[in-house]
């Protein structure tokens, strides 16, 4: 079982690539290693690494390798996100994709060629490092393809699939055999018509990545200590398995955090412990990577308020209560095999045709699948999820250890019968926060 953190540098946040300070990075990594964690996820800023379509800055790539080597010295493996893309409410796109050079990020041939070479170059630079886990294509890049982004690059689901396959192949050419994957925010699971789909998330790439943020309507509806809130990450892990073709495909809880005010500061440690404990009760979990390592400095302006306090450590590298909770869990699980019991009862997911999931809002907070699953979980059932088209497939059910199947209408309370009463997709965490604030 892997425990790690998304690395947010204390000096300059991700702008630190402009003034790369190896000593500061090493001090940050020392504080991360001090929590007993074993890996980090790092974020090059795409416009800084590839400011022109045919210029990938050698010095920037060298600094990325230097960071990875510093992590190795501290026993930390490294996953690298390539196309940033979007981080903490800010978009970072190179000038050759915007305004006068505006081209679709997912379909323009020149942009595709530039992205491929960039991802291949980063992967190749790290291919000989034993602590290099692999590439994530980009951070929640699906947010550029649809609303509520203010200026989306519209594509179809088929075009999204083609883009994902092409970019994953570029990573594989750069570093064959490593764990290359892609990651989406929860519109892929919850938003009807979104071009990035559950099937893509659960079938393309080496593992399935899920990002769990309870400001999406979950905490607003269920409160900071509600079952649905504390088990939202577990729900997404199990939801991904409904679409997976491999019944034991690994799932990486790649992002999860305790966003205030939905999780009050005094509840952050309790929420952290509960969220991770419930996630660990899901079979085939690869690991947990918390968002994020260090608080954003208050000297930096214009972040949504909740961004400033998400760290396991303060901006001065002191350990916070949530950090102590993660450290204790990492210590508890060190050297142990992850063998949770199978989840024998499955709830049926009827989101329409599996490839495009046109009715996936049934899975969103307020939807019949989500609310019924939460009701069963509150009763201690430990529910799995299964697609309607597989609910009578004896071989599939047996491969997952499922012995009982329920529809939302059969769940005891009113949740399964009232239908979706909340809009699907992401929600603002407060009136001042943009419609999509990726904490990553």
TrEMBL record:
Gene3D superfamilies: Glycosidases (3.20.20.80). It comes from the Bacteria. Residues 425-434 have a biased composition (Pro residues). InterPro entries: GH (IPR017853). Residues 406-440 are annotated as: Disordered. Keywords: Hydrolase. GO terms for molecular function: hydrolase activity. This is Glycosyl hydrolase. It comes from Streptomyces lydicus.
